[in-house]
Amino acid sequence: MALNSKIPAGPIDSKWKTYKSTCKLVNPANKRQLEIIVVGTGLAGASAAASLGEMGYKVKAFCFQDSPRRAHSIAAQGGINAAKNYQNDGDSTYRLFYDTIKGGDYRAREGNVHRLAEVSANIIDQCVAQGVPFAREYGGLLSNRSFGGTQVQRTFYAAGQTGQQLLIGAYQALERQVALGTVTMYSRHEMLDVVVIDGKARGIIARNLVTGELERHFGHAVLLCTGGYGNVFYLSTNAMGSNVTAAWKAHRKGAFFGNPCFTQIHPTCIPVSGDHQSKLTLMSESLRNDGRIWVPKKQGDNRKPTDIPEEERDYYLERRYPAFGNLVPRDVASRAAKERCDAGYGVGSSKMAVYLDFASAIERYGRVEANKQGKPNLDKASIIALGKDVVKEKYGNLFDMYAKITGENPYEVPMRIYPAVHYTMGGLWVDYELMTTVPNLYALGEANFSDHGANRLGASALMQGLADGYFVIPYTLGNNLADDIRTKAIPTDHPAFIAAEKEVSDRINRLMNIKGKESVESFHKRLGKIMWDKCGMGRNAKGLQEAIKEIQELRKEFWSNVRIPGDINEFNPELDKAGRVADFLELGELMCIDALQRNESCGGHFREESQTEDGEALRDDANFMYVAAWEFKGESNFELHKEPLNYEVVHPSARSYK
Amino acid sequence: MQHYNMNLTLKVWRQKNNKAKGGFETFQVKNVSSEMSFLEMFDVLNEQLVAEGKEPVAFDHDCREGICGMCSMHINGRAHGPWEQTTTCQLHMREYKDGDTIVVEPWRANSFPVIKDLVVDRTAFDRIIAAGGYVSVNTGNAQDANALPIEKQKADESFAAASCIGCGACVAACPNASAMLFVSAKVSHLALLPQGDPERKVRAVNMVQQMDTEGFGSCTNIGACEAECPKGISIENIARLNREYLGAVFSGSAQG
Q1: Inter-chain contacts counted by CB atoms under 8 A, chains A and B
Q2: pLDDT of residue B256
Q3: ipTM score of the complex?
Q4: Whether this model's pTM surpasses 0.80
Q5: How many CB atoms lie within 10 A of CB B17?
Q6: Catalytic residue among A95, A202, A292, A330
Q7: Is B121 exposed, middle or buried (0-12, 13-18, 19+ CB in 10 A)?
Q8: Among residues A103, A156, A578, B79, which one has the fewest Cβ atoms lying within 10 Å of its Cβ?
C-alpha cells in the first residue's frame, strides 16, 4: 500500500488556503444526519467536539475520566505558541514554521507544519474570545515569553497553568454544545475497539467503567483524540490514566503507526526519589527563561549548592550552546544533562540530577523592581526580597509544587531536576486531512504523528491540539463526509458490531481468568524499566535487540501470571489498567523495532552509533528522511512502509544551537 | 531533609457500589517512606491487598500534580487533608509519623453519590457548567486577541477565579454541601472579563438554578469552602455571585 499524504499542490503558503476554498462542503441539513464519534476530550477532542457540534453534526464524545475537564492537557504548564509578532521581534508565520521544522530535526512534513503556523494566530483569538485569562501587561495587552528552540517571544501563557485555562475554555465550549443537544457526553467510558464496516470506521465498542457493560456506538466517522503513550515507560509526566489503548486498537484494525520510537524526554522534571515513585512531575520549560542550569565543575562535589562559588560551577548549556544557552530545545538539554550525570557530575543523593538555579534571576528582577520604585541604592537583602516577589508572580505555582514534592524551598536553594519522559511525537499515521490509513478514522493532537518530527518544541503541543480540533478537522471532515451523506446510520446489531463486541468481551474474560500471582502494576513497572534502560535517552542496536526479546517474554508472563481482583461487571480500576498495560506490552516492542530500524540519530531519537565527535545527534538524511509507518500484521509482526519527506522550502542542514 | 519510614493504621471507607451499605475497614500499612505522596501510600496499600488476593481500594486520581481535580479524599475530617491549598495527590507523607492512624472517607454530599469506596460521581458540576458557564462564541468568530485590552488587575482576578479545578472539596467541606464557591468561581471568571459581559445575567441565574436542581445546599457564610480549597479560591467570589444574581433577578432581564 502506497502512502498518500494528500499534501495539496502549490506554494507552501497557499496550500491550506487553496484547500479550504476548494474542499467539499456538507450542507446544514445533511450535517444534522451525520454522526461523529470523538474519543478523548483533551484540547484536540474537546475543541473538535465543540466545533463540530456548533456546525450541526451529531456528536458523541467519550472520555475515561469522570469529567471531560480532567483530560491531561490540563496539566500543560508553560504556554502556547502563536505567530502574532505582538513583540515586534521579527516573528512571522514563516519563522514559526521554520523553527518547528528545524526543532523537529527535519522529520516532519512541511505542509502540515506550515498549516499549523498559519492557524496559530486564530487559536489565540478564539481562546481570548472564550474568556481564557491569558497573562497581560499593564497596558492591558497580552504578554509573551520565550520557549526553547526559538529566538523570539511568541509564547502566550496563563501563569504556569496554560493547559488548564485552554482546556477549560474548550471544555466550556463543549458543555455549551452538550446543553444545546448537539453533543452527547459519555464520561467514565473507555473505547476498546473500532468497528470497521466495508473498509470504513463506523463506530466503536466502549466500556462503561462504572458498570462494566460494553456498549456499541455508531458514527459515520470516528475521531481519536486520545493523547500520547509516554506511560509505556511507567514513569513519565503523563497522568496515571494516559494510555495507548484507543490508538493501539485502531492500529490492530489497520491504522498504521507513525514513528513510534519518537519520544520526547523533557529536561526539567523533579528527579526520581525512590522505588515508590508513581509518576514524575514536570517543572515547566518556561523556567528556563530565568533559571540557569549548572553542575559543579568537580566530580562528586558534595557541598551544598549555595556553598559552591560561582567560578566552580559549570553552566554547561551556556558553555556548549552560547547562541541559545539555557533555551536549547528539549532533546539537546536532556542529553546534555544525562552526559554530565553519566560523567559523574550529578548532584543530590542519587547523583542523577542537575541544578536549575534562580538566584541570578531573583537578583536581576529585584534590581529592576528597585529602580522602578525609585530606590536604586537598596541593600542586597531587600533587592532579593523584591526579586523573589517577581519570580513568585511568574512561577509561583511551580515553585509551590516543587516545595510540596521535595520539601525544599526553591527560592532559597536551586531546584534539582532531571529529564523524564513527557510527550510522544510518534502516533497514528495521518494524511494532511488527519485521516489514518483506515478511511473515516481520524487522529488528532498528540495521538497522531504529524507535526513535530523527531522533537517537539515547547509550547507547541497545545498549539497543535487546538489547531487540529478548532481549525483543521472542521474542514477536512466535511471534505470526506460530503460523499457520505447518503449513508444512513448503521444499526448496532450489524454483524461487525456484534463481532467487535465479542472480541472485546473475550479479551476481558481472558484477562480475568488468568488469576495469576503478580499485580498489573508490577508488570507495568518491569516494562517501564526495559523501555527506559534500552529505548530511552540513549539507544543502541544491542540494547534494542535485547529489549525486544525481554518485552516478548514479559508479555508472555503477563498473559499467564497477572492477577486482577474484582469482577467484570463493576467499577474495577485494576481491570481497566490491565487492558492498558497489555496494549503497552505490544506497543513497547514496536517502539524498539522502530528505534532499531532507524539507524541514525535525530531529535529525541539518539542512536549511540550515530553521533558527531562532540556527542551531538548525527542525522542520516540519505537513508532515513522518511516517516516510518508500521502496519500491524499479527503478534510481533509489523511491516514497515516509508513515506518519503520532501523539503521544498527549508533545506535540511545540521541542526545547530551553538 | 531527613527521610524516614513509618508504619500506619488506615481506616478507609469501603462501599461496593451506590446501592450497598458502606463501612470502615482497618488496614496496617508498613514501611511507608516520608518521601511518598499520599496516593503513593495508597498504591502501597493496594499492592498489598492485591498480593493478599483482596480487592484494592478504589479511589479517583489522574494527573498526580494537583491540577486535574480528580483526586478527592477526605482525610482525618478534612477535604484533601491537612496541608493548605494542596490536593490529596500533592500531600506528602512527611506530614505523618510512625504509628499514626489516618481516617479516609469519600466526599460526602447528596449531590455526589458514591460510586465505589472513595470514588464519587461529580457530574453535577458538569451540568452546572452546561447551564451557562461559558461565553457563547462559536469557533471562527473571534476578532484579534489584542483588539480589546483588559486591565491587568481584572485579568489577574479573573485568572484567580478560573484556577478552580472542579474537585468538589468546597462541597465536601461545607456542612450544607453548598456548591456556591464552585459556581461563584466560574461566574466571577467570566463576569470579570469583557467577553463574559453580554451573558452575565442569564449565566448567573441559570447556573444558580442548576445548582439548586442538583440538590446542593445553601450558603450560610461559614467559609469552610475557602479554607479547604486546594487552589485558594476566595470567598469574595461568592459575594460577587450574590451581586450578579440579585442584579440579574431584580433587573428582570434574565430568564432562568
Answers
A1: 223
A2: 46
A3: 0.98
A4: yes
A5: 14
A6: A330
A7: middle
A8: A578
